[in-house]
TrEMBL record:
It comes from Oikopleura dioica (Tunicate). Residues 198-377 form the GMPS ATP-PPase domain. ATP binds at residues 226-232. The keyword ATP-binding applies. It is an enzyme of class 6 (ligase). Pathway: Purine metabolism; GMP biosynthesis; GMP from XMP (L-Gln route): step 1/1. Its EC number is 6.3.5.2. Keywords: ATP-binding, Glutamine amidotransferase, GMP biosynthesis, Ligase, Nucleotide-binding, Purine biosynthesis. CDD domains: GATase1_GMP_Synthase, GMP_synthase_C. This is GMP synthase (glutamine-hydrolyzing). One of its GO terms (cellular component) is cytosol. GO terms for molecular function: ATP binding; GMP synthase activity. It comes from the Eukaryota.
């Protein structure tokens, strides 16, 4: 039996003010077995009244700016508990007559705060705790009726109107960098008296019931299976819902998979788009070309299986999760996205995992009986290694760059916005505590930098950092280099039993030629380097350095020290 009706279980509303962590707030609330729903600031007040509590997210705008989200101040008069985060706290203070001003210097990073443990929001928590702060505005005058319940030095870090059960925090309790964030959310839900009934068993049954209702008694499902966790769990869920006889799984190798990743391959996508891709350096165009060719072959093979996606009785299953919208945002739309849109509009797109986060999908897969080797597999981007080769069209040199700034850019998130900024590189002895400190400090001071790396191996002087790039495209040679480097890195992880201790570890090929002889600067760079982004012991890192030292065409191994934010998982 279902534990509760989907319609009548209590829900928390998350108002999305444009911050990069809105989906993470959603995840945290669901981890506490409470259903959450994300809505825009323009949501009608009559709908908001149906929720048991409201959380207002952070956002990139100033509360006093013309482009600030248009959120009604009446949201605070619904007699519903409210928690404002970052921008949300500033909004609460502003509309109640308080003053918000711009800081002379932004706070971006982990800082200790002092909290009032007498407040229900910080009940049974330590008086001093580390939190993530990412803001340029701050409260100068606290609104009447509110108390300051936390401070970061002289800066107001949290406020409360306990009588109305309205709270605000300047920091981000939703991220792992805030040590007691989950406990703060739990305290807020207790204040709001929200019962914890949104359990995993309830959600499993809800997914299966949804698939059966959507597909009906005669419909069939085509699952595009990549071999990753999401698509494998999706296939298993569809099997359980309507039986294996009505489900077909299709895997197409896009030509950019990891070394040794073998599947029952029907097509090798690399044979189709490689000529175009070998001339493409723009990351969005790479994604589009791969997506367009992929969906072309899907249509061909699906028709051969008598599962044409144009057939009204065929439903297309996709392992959509509740993704981080900023990190996965793309302005270039591929044919793949167009097909998904058409299927969705026709009501023939099956997305039972759309309310799940990655860790929840892993647990669901285990409950469905999938082996640990599948459910613990590290995530791998759809375009594969194609976006882990940073490409350059030609030999480039920028004499204006500082020698410690690399002549490449990477994707990141700064001030609640997506950024495409420069990469700093540090060379010297492996003093890890100092390196981590600098990796946090540099992006805070230099807002044009969103990623900091450590150059492993023999230290080099500033004048010996590369200020040019090796021409790099998605050639067979570049891909074979990256595939072998990725294989070696993961082999060392397995050897030292570290795979399950990491959520994922991208290995990225950089068009950077370190350690060139003086005479070679006249003819340009010709080799590359590799950067890894793990969280691992220095002992294993040393073994990686030795392993790559003997790899042809790879000059150096770099270690990505950047936290998230400002860095993102992938570099492109």
């Amino acid at each position: 039996m279902r534990e509760a009706s989907s319609q009548n279980i209590p829900k928390v509303c998350i108002i999305d003010a444009g911050g990069q962590y809105t989906k993470v707030i959603d995840r945290r609330i669901r981890e506490l077995q409470v259903r959450s729903e994300i809505n825009s600031p323009s949501t009608d007040l009559s709908l908001l009244k149906t929720f048991s509590a409201i959380i207002i997210s952070g956002g990139p705008s100033s509360v006093t700016a013309e482009d600030a989200p248009k959120l009604s101040a009446e949201i605070l008069n619904l007699n519903i508990p409210v928690l404002g985060i970052c921008w949300g706290m500033q909004f609460i203070n502003h509309v109640n007559g308080g003053q918000v001003v711009a800081l002379e210097k932004r706070e971006d990073g982990v800082f200790p705060i002092t909290v009032d443990t007498g407040s229900d929001l910080f009940k049974e928590l330590p008086e001093t705790q580390d939190v993530l702060l990412t803001h340029g505005d701050s409260i100068k005058k606290v609104a009447d009726g509110f108390d300051t319940i936390a401070k970061s030095g002289d800066i107001v870090a949290a406020i409360a109107d306990s009588n109305r059960k309205i709270f605000g925090v300047q920091f981000h309790p939703e991220v792992d960098l805030t040590k007691f964030g989950k406990e703060i959310f739990s305290n807020f839900l207790n204040i709001a008296q929200v019962p914890r009934v949104f359990t995993e068993n309830f959600r499993d049954e809800e997914c299966i019931a949804e698939i059966r209702e959507q597909v009906g008694e005669t419909g069939k499902i085509l699952v595009l299976i990549s071999g990753g966790v999401d698509s494998c769990v999706l296939a298993a869920l569809c099997f359980k819902a309507i039986g294996k006889e009505r489900v077909k799984c299709l895997h197409i190798d896009n030509g950019f998979m990891r070394k040794g990743f073998l599947f029952n391959i029907l097509y090798d996508l690399l044979q189709e788009p490689s000529q175009i891709l070998c001339k493409t350096v723009d990351p969005e165009q790479k994604r589009k070309i791969i997506g367009d060719t992929f969906i072309k072959l899907v249509k061909i093979e699906a028709s051969r299986l008598n599962m044409s996606i144009d057939n009204k009785d065929v439903f297309l299953a996709q392992g959509t999760l509740r993704p981080d919208l900023i990190e996965s945002a793309s302005a270039t739309v591929s044919s793949h996205a167009d097909v998904i849109k058409v299927q969705k509009e026709a009501g023939r797109l099956v997305e039972p995992l759309r309310d799940f986060h990655k860790d929840e999908v892993r647990r669901l897969g285990a409950r469905l009986g999938l082996p640990a080797s599948v459910v613990n597999r590290q995530p791998f981007p759809g375009p594969g290694l194609a976006i882990r080769v940073l490409c350059r069209a030609k030999f480039t040199r920028d004499a204006k760059l500082y020698t410690s700034i690399l002549p490449i850019r990477s994707v990141g998130v700064q001030g609640d916005c997506r950024s495409y900024s420069q990469v700093a590189c540090i060379s010297g002895p492996p003093l890890w505590s100092e390196l981590v400190f600098l990796a946090k400090l540099i992006p805070r001071i230099c807002h044009t930098i969103n990623r900091v790396c450590y150059l492993m191996g023999t230290p080099i002087r500033d004048s010996h950092f590369p200020n040019d790039t090796t021409p790099t495209t998605l050639s067979d040679y570049a891909l074979s280099q990256l595939r072998e480097c990725d294989h070696r890195a993961n082999s060392i992880l397995k050897k030292h039993s570290q795979v399950e201790k990491l959520s994922q570890m991208p290995v990225v090929l950089l068009p950077l030629h370190f350690d060139r002889e003086p005479y070679s600067t006249k003819v340009g760079p010709c080799q590359r380097s590799v950067v890894i982004r793990p969280f691992i012991s220095s002992n294993v890192s040393t073994k990686w350095k030795k392993k790559y030292a003997r790899f042809p065409g790879i000059t150096r191994l770099l270690y990505d020290l950047t936290s998230k934010p400002p860095g993102t998982t992938e570099w492109e």
